[in-house]
Design brief:
The protein has four domains: 27-148 and 171-204; 205-299 and 312-354, Leucine-rich repeat, LRR (right-handed beta-alpha superhelix) (Alpha-Beta Horseshoe); 469-611, Leucine-rich Repeat Variant (Alpha Horseshoe); 613-750, Leucine-rich Repeat Variant (Alpha Horseshoe), CATH 1.25.10. Helix 8 (239-247) links the parallel strand 10 and strand 11 (253-255). The strands form three sheets. A ten-stranded parallel beta sheet has the order 3-4-5-8-9-10-11-12-13-14. The chain has a two-stranded antiparallel sheet with strand order 1-2. The chain contains 31 helices and 14 strands. The radius of gyration is 35 Å and the shape is elongated. With 751 residues, the chain is α/β, with parallel strands linked by helices.
Length: 751
């Protein structure tokens, strides 16, 4: 079902939401005074739509670099008579005090504020406006929300000396939040008195105190009849904590896990503690003890283990205290503990590091709030994908994509996630992936390249892009991917391997694409970038893959694109061509790429006068005798000269070499080629060759064109016969056969 789910199109609701957010002005809004967004007066939207608009907006700002945030976006929801909000999830830097302030009249039921570091104590006051309706509230990682700015002097001069100080707000409590049941205070700032803060809440059902150090949690017993979920991740526990927890008999979910790398913990788990939980917390369906060190052995000796198939029956449990469970747990967190490697674990879902299933469960459970754990879990997945075969590929991919999107600015996750993506998208997994999923991968890879100039992330991202069919699969992000690659190649200090992959990708991206794409990429500075790379390699006297790919990319991007050909000439491309020829006389592949490119330049009538110098004509004439890369270099040199000859004797403005002498060498070269040569060239159109047929000014150009067509249609008939017919080559050849000026051997070949 996962396969089908990932392949089905987006819902109409999602598509409309996305469209409206990207075109607010053209759909829901108009611009007041050219700056403030205002909702059209006749628009009334229910909470189902408004919630989605706000939540999608946050998602787009976070994960789509092209999407522009609007200063006044939240003001669209300021009036509950036209827009209703109920459940919204806001994240990170996107939200500021004035945004919450703008929606204070809404009757919010659920408000999740995750890592919103820009929110200050002003927003605490705004929260009070929602107190009569709020059921769920998360302030996870909002590290400044209990701080207000204090300006002691209040006078101008004093402010310069003594800027605003941050002062902790001590008098705020959840007084009046009569319906609040679910509360997440994870990573709350030190100094806030949690007990006082929470005391007014009548009946809490779920409480998350992740990363908060409390020596006394006795106050939790005031909710012993209502608390069903308690998270104390990374709290240093003691015997007192355990005794309090054991009294919370309604608990269904208990998480006392920790990050074993984060700091020193005195507390060690024992058999007795686990027994206490099993005996007292009879409703428990989910328990997380990840990262804990067991003080004593809690395992059943292996002789007593009932062998046979692994079982989740409590009676067979390899972990002794869990034999007392009434039924298997829905979830058991054992990540980075020795217990996850045991045979019989009485839970339907286990997070751990033993196998793929456990690792995926860990990524799934910890991504949202625990990137430090998630990055280690993704690292384990990376090893599984690299060494073994992933059996739950789609799930793995979707989890890594989610983690990368969620933690765009977390270096560890970007490094491990981008590495895992490389192995999860390679060819052996190709068949199982839908277009939609592969596009999501490309999006997060490009996000990573944008946010991180870090070498490892850049390399992983470039390598992952190489797993896709280029240009087809990258077409939908064509501009963006080219901009990113050019950006990498324009950096002054460069990693060799990244440079090589990036040039390879650039070359692939401009191969076999439409001319408007090539023109657009040319305008981004593609030609200049490639010439700079060539210049650097020349200075180092190295002719490596980067040098060859750069010339190849220039050959591709100038194909039937006069603007790019002109740029090549304007940026001293010919000077580099001559220098490379002189420096690397033996490099056949290089010569072929350079002459292919000059063939493209020579096809542009307006640019040909720039090739009409003694030096260039001599070089092209000498290359007619080249045996480099079969006939390719000689063939391309002859092609360049054929176009120049086609302009007639009157443009031959040089004394040396003589036009007749060059013509003679051209005939000799064409006659030396094997007509059945297999070719290292790819024509998308015959138009530049067909141009040379209906003319009598240069019979040798006519002969070169006829030879080229004859060779291509006889060696590759399936590909080139249809092209010749489609582009009207047949009547042109028939007419030429009747021409008096055409040479006999040319007519023979045409016939």
């Amino acid at each position: 079902s996962l396969k089908m789910a990932s392949d089905s199109p987006e819902s109409l609701m999602t598509l409309c939401t996305d469209y409206c957010l990207r075109n607010l002005e053209g759909t829901l809004c108009y611009l007041l005074d050219n700056e403030t967004l205002r909702l059209h007066p006749d628009i009334f939207l229910p909470s189902e739509i408004c919630d989605k608009l706000v939540n999608e907006y946050v998602e787009l700002v976070k994960t789509d670099s092209v999407f522009e945030p609007h200063e006044s976006f939240f003001t669209l929801f300021s009036d509950p008579r036209s827009t209703r909000l109920a459940r919204i999830h806001l994240r990170e830097q996107i939200v500021q005090d004035q945004d919450l302030e703008a929606i204070r009249k809404q009757d919010l039921v659920e408000l999740y504020l995750t890592n919103c570091e820009k929110l200050t104590a002003k927003s605490l006051q705004t929260l009070v406006s929602f107190s009569h309706t709020l059921i769920s509230l998360s302030l996870f990682g909002c590290c400044n929300i209990f701080y207000e700015e204090e300006n002691p002097g209040g006078c101008e001069d004093d402010c310069l000396v003594n800027p605003t100080r941050q002062v902790l707000v001590k008098d705020f409590t959840f007084e009046g939040f009569s319906r609040l049941r679910f509360l997440n205070l994870g990573r709350l700032i030190e100094g806030v008195n949690v007990e006082t803060l929470l005391r007014p809440l009548a009946s809490l059902a779920a409480l998350d105190l992740s990363g908060i150090q409390l020596n006394d949690v006795g106050f939790l017993t005031q909710w012993k009849d209502s608390l069903v979920s308690l998270v104390l991740y990374n709290m240093d526990l003691s015997e007192e904590h355990i005794q309090v927890i054991a009294q919370l008999r309604k608990l269904r979910h208990l998480d006392i896990s920790r990050d074993h790398l984060s700091s020193y913990y005195k507390f060690k788990l024992t058999r007795r503690v686990l027994n206490l939980f099993v005996e007292n917390l009879v409703n428990l369906t989910s328990l997380d003890i990840s990262g804990h060190t067991m003080l004593e052995n809690c395992t059943i000796p292996s002789m007593e283990e009932k062998m046979g198939q692994t079982s989740i029956e409590p009676a067979k449990s390899s972990i002794a205290p869990f034999r007392g469970l009434k039924r298997p747990l829905q979830f058991l967190g054992l990540f980075e503990t020795s217990l996850c490697r045991l045979t019989h674990i009485p839970a339907y879902k286990v997070s751990g590091d033993k196998n793929e299933e456990q690792v995926l469960n860990a990524i799934e459970a910890y991504t949202e709030h625990r990137p430090e754990i998630t990055s280690r879990a993704i690292n384990l997945l990376f090893d599984i994908a690299r060494i073994e075969r992933c059996s739950q590929l789609l799930r793995a991919l979707q989890l890594v994509i989610t983690a990368l999107k969620c933690h765009k600015d977390d270096k560890n996750i970007q490094v491990t996630g981008s590495a895992a993506l490389f192995y999860l998208t390679n060819s052996e997994y190709r068949m199982e992936q839908s277009v939609k999923l592969r596009r999501q991968v490309i999006q997060v890879v490009l996000n990573g390249m944008e946010s991180y100039q870090e070498v490892t992330v850049q390399r992983n991202c470039c390598l992952t892009l190489c797993n896709f069919s280029i240009p087809e699969e990258l077409e939908f992000q064509y501009r963006r991917v080219n901009e990113l690659l050019l950006n990498i190649l324009n950096q002054s200090r460069q990693d060799e391997s990244i440079q090589r992959i990036a040039v390879h990708l650039c070359n692939a991206l401009v191969c076999q694409v439409d001319n408007d794409h090539k023109e657009a990429v040319g305008k981004m500075g593609f030609v200049m970038t490639m010439l700079k790379l060539i210049q650097k390699k020349l200075a180092d006297k190295t002719c490596d893959q980067v040098m060859e790919f750069s010339w190849s990319a220039l050959w591709n991007i100038t194909d039937e694109t006069p603007d790019n050909c002109e740029m090549f000439l304007n940026y001293s491309g010919m000077k580099l061509f001559l220098e490379c020829l002189k420096e690397f006389p033996e490099k056949q592949e290089l010569h072929r790429n350079m002459l292919g490119l000059l063939g493209n330049v020579a096809e542009v009538k307006e640019l040909r006068p720039q090739l009409m110098t003694s030096q260039f004509i001599s070089v092209f004439s000498n290359l007619l005798e080249s045996k480099a890369d079969g006939i390719e270099v000689s063939y391309n040199a002859c092609g360049v000269l054929s176009h120049i000859m086609f302009d007639g004797p009157e443009v031959w403005g040089i004394c040396e070499p003589h036009r007749e002498e060059v013509v003679k060498r051209m005939w000799a070269a064409i006659q030396s080629w094997d007509i059945n040569s297999r070719r290292n060239i790819n024509y998308r159109s015959f138009e530049p060759i067909l141009r040379l047929l209906p003319q009598g000014i240069s019979p040798v150009s006519q002969h070169w064109a006829t030879w080229a067509l004859y060779n291509l249609v006889s060696v590759y008939p399936d590909k080139y016969c249809p092209l010749l017919i489609k582009e009207g080559g047949i009547p042109l050849l028939k007419d030429m056969i009747k021409m008096a000026s055409a040479r006999q051997e040319t007519k023979e070949m045409a016939r």
